[in-house]
Amino acid sequence: MTYSWFSRIILLGYKKPLEREDLFELNESDSSYIVCPIFEKQWRKEVLRNQERQEIKASFHKEARARKPSLLYALWNTFKFVLIQVALFKVFADILSFTSPLIMKQMIIFCEHRQDFGWRGYGYALALFVVVFLQTLILQQYQRFNMLTSAKIKTAVIGLIYKKALLLSNVSRKRFSTGEVINLMSADAQQLMDLTANLNLLWSAPLQILMAVSLLWQELGPAVLAGTAVLVLVIPINALVATRVKKLKKSQTKNKDKQIKLLNEILHGIKILKLYAWEPSYKKKIVEIREQELEVQKSAGYLAVFSMLTLTCIPFLTRISLGRLEDFLNTEELLPQNIETNYIGDHAIGFTNASFSWDKTGIPVLKNLNIKIPEGALVAVIGQVGSGKSSVLSAMLGEMEKLTGVVQRKGSVAYVAQQAWIQNCILQENILFGSTMQKQFYEQVLEACALLPDLEQLPNGDQTEIGERGVNISGGQKHRVSLARAVYSRADIYLLDDPFSAVDVHIGKQLFEKVIGSSGILKNKTRVLVTHNLTLLPQMDLIVVMESGRVAQMGTYQELLSKTRNLTHLLQAFSEQEKAHALKRVSVINSRTILKDQILEQNDRPSLDQGKQFSMKKEKIPIGGVKFSIILKYLQAFGWLWVWLSVASYVGQNLVGIGQNLWLSAWAKEAKHMNEFTEWKQIRSNKLNIYGLLGLMQGFFVCSGAYILTRGSLAASRTLYAQLLDNVLHLPLQFFETSPIGQIINRFTKDMFIIDMRFHYYLRTWVNCTLDVIGTVLVIVGALPLFILGVIPLVFLYFTIQRYYVASSRQIRRLAGASRSPIISHFSETLSGVSTIRAFGHEQRFIQQNKEVVNENLVCFYNNVISNRWLSVRLEFLGNLMVFFAALLAVLAGSSIDSALVGLSISYALNITQSLNFWVRKACEIETNAVSIERVCEYENMGKEAPWIMSRRPPAQWPNKGIVEFINYRARYRDDLGLALQDITFQTHGEEKIGIVGRTGAGKSTLSNCLFRIVERSGGKIIIDGIDISTIGLHDLRGKLNIIPQDPVLFSGTLQMNLDPLDKYSDCQLWEVLELCHLKEFVQSLPKKLLHEISEGGENLRVLVLDSGRITEFGTPQNLICQKGLFFEMLTEAGITQDSVTK
Q1: What angle do CA 984, 987, 991 make, to 5 degrees?
Q2: What DSSP letter does each residue of 1035-1072 carry, written as one string?
Q3: Residue 430 falls within a domain, yes or no?
Q4: Residue 330 — pLDDT band, cuts 50, 70, 90?
Q5: Rounded to two decimals, what is the model's pTM?
Q6: Which domain holds residue 1065?
Q7: Strand pairing partners for 749?
Q8: Which residue windows are transmembrane per the record (predicted)?
């Protein structure tokens, strides 16, 4: 009960910065591995009970209102016994808190009647000490179990949200964006945790009021009714305030959803923002949402003047979060019965009169499918863009809503998505994907998927960590890793969605021959391949031709070829190159297309170029004390005017409070010596007027303090958030490629929440406690001068305990903060790859991983709670000694002290226990929560990009010729890495098309990155139309260049905003662009047209050949072929002939 067992951690933390391995583990019953399954079981029971209730209601009332399953009821059934235990601790603690005044009353009576002096006075002093000490022990047990239970509830809800996210139907996924789901997991689950932590106040506060009124009735009689009447009048006012706060909270929650959603999109699309110089536009959008949130916060801050606001608002605020969580948990899920997976037949996949849509009530996307795919067959699904090829694979996976018909599938499935999904882990784990290592087969897969050359370039081979979304590997490498993952799974059925789209031609040929084709690893497996490469069709067992969501043709290649007219009609939709491939069956590829594709591919994702070898950074956990400069930074953001006005208001508030108590004490002393009622009545009016004036002054100071604090805290929140956003947007692209998105979002969510809502509260409480302690000591010393002798050693012990505690608590808080980021990162990663996870049937493995990262955070939280209890027991014990010392001095003082001063000094001594405890606790809270300010300000000192705008600006029409010149140019990704480009020197002509080719890692991506100054120079320079690009601002450079990335990135918002975020062009210009891109007809068909909401080769062509960061060849394709060099070798590997280049 005294938490002495935790002293080992406190002492260890004082000697060295604590690490995760130093912390105490949770009891098994408190871990997420036990808590989550128990709660999920109760939730399923509640869902079934609700269904039964609805069926019964429907049988009596045909139009019975649908009722959702109650999350609160499921939580109660899971945690009711521990909640009752916590409530019992609170009852005993409250009873003991009212025992202390009864003992103090006896002491006052004893001091007034000293003729019966004996050992009774010492007995009262000892009894007072025992009672307050017991109250301390019971109250700390209450706090421990209360906080742990609230954390378990949050853990259980997060687990349920995660599991639900894995089961969401497509309609539900459109309804809840990634940002909204993350907000449910963080903000709304936190709200439920806060409810549990404060739940007992809902009945404890009224109980304490009744007990207080009862005791006061015994002392004051009917006079107590006046105070009770005021209290009764205040309650409905607070109820009205709570209703207003509920509306504000709803508005704030929506703003938070928008903010996190947009932040998530910005961070995932940061490369596009930087390449197009769109940062200011999106920064403005974020700031607008943030200002709306601060307006709500300001209104809530002004309402906080009412003393009972927090208590009254708890159920209202939690009701909002409960409603949001229940809406999410009751949304549509994918129906497993859409696909029959337990049938026994002669085909691997079968569709019978099957129609599908993405929405149960939507228009069918696939219509009347009748397909039978034999086991072990190689099937191609082809068709024009938008014909439904990828949708067929989604239907096979069960990702679409089946409207009619029958779907059958036999055996396990492996899936390669069109957009490769890569996990933030080492490359080997990406391939194994939860399977056990079989070395021989693993190496066979690596060789077949053409990954062995890539492993030689990786710094740690297959142990190299791959960043979030595969940022440190190229698009082709991502697809090959994704393919290797599927092959290694040894599934029965392989669904491959255009896996060759991002790989070089010769690599694609190798992948088909060694993996997918008739002699590949998967030769005996069922393979369904969506492809645009028509040269592969002769090798297919079955070809399915899709058109407008229907099967237009189906059969072998020879069968389709015999129907010349139909096949020709199909091929007309493809490029002339592909038509030639299909009709002539000649493996010839037009060199212009190849070179064009290289240009488009070059900015997909950085290849593992020589010199660009990095891994994801683990979150840095600071050590040592929080610098005072961090607190100073907050105070500067707060505004020094508001700081001093706040201090003045709280000093005035405390001085007036002390004055009120001293005035009452003096009044009571005078009244005691008055024999005549008329004499007392004469001074009553004067005394009451002054007391009333002091009350009004205190009310003024309280209201002023609340107003000043709200203004200052809003200024601090606005300033620090703007600085954080500005710092993040100015960070170089390499930072985002090596830092998990969860780390960054964590600063915008949890850390900013502490700055917005908590830090100013801790500062205010600490100032109040400091003034309370000073005032209390002065009052007691004034009445009992010898009290100072006991205070000095006790204060020394206070500071000693605080010093030991802060060192450990601060580091535990840092560990807890760092452990939150993996939760968000894993959650975000899962949502982006949910189709792949479901296809492989690995939902349970990812649920287990979620439990692991949540459990790590729970361990840190638990240790933080215990450290607080360790501190509280010791501080309150010292405070109890102060109470005992004051009571003992009062007994020893005998008749030399008035009983009124005895009551005042002991009541202050009882308060000092809480005040001193709060003073030390809040001082520690300030330091530990200042970690959030430290984390928010961390990016300020990181290396930034060059300025967006510089004093030298290019002419408005620059560049007007397009002459690009590299002069002895060198570049490296980091100072500690080798050169990625070495002595590059070449010059282009105006309006010339340049093809950049080279093997993986040659430096193609690096070259384009240097043009945009994504990678800065290590030597030499780049001149575009006479201007050295290093002498102008990044936005002046990037705003004048353009690039077409391979992976399209769309942001939520209107189509017009996605086309022109800077609002530079007219509608006519936008329509012209859409027409050029063959999108005008499509956009005109949309109801809102441009305002449609988005849900989440030339004649003078020359070639630049790179190898190991150096230019090896530069010239026309014909000249390079004649040289028989590296370019000729690459063409030969790709099967490109000289004739095709000439054409």
Answers
A1: 135
A2: HHHHTT-----SS----SEEHHHHH-TT--S-HHHHHH
A3: yes
A4: confident
A5: 0.71
A6: 1053-1134
A7: none
A8: 122-139, 223-241, 299-318, 688-709, 773-801, 877-897
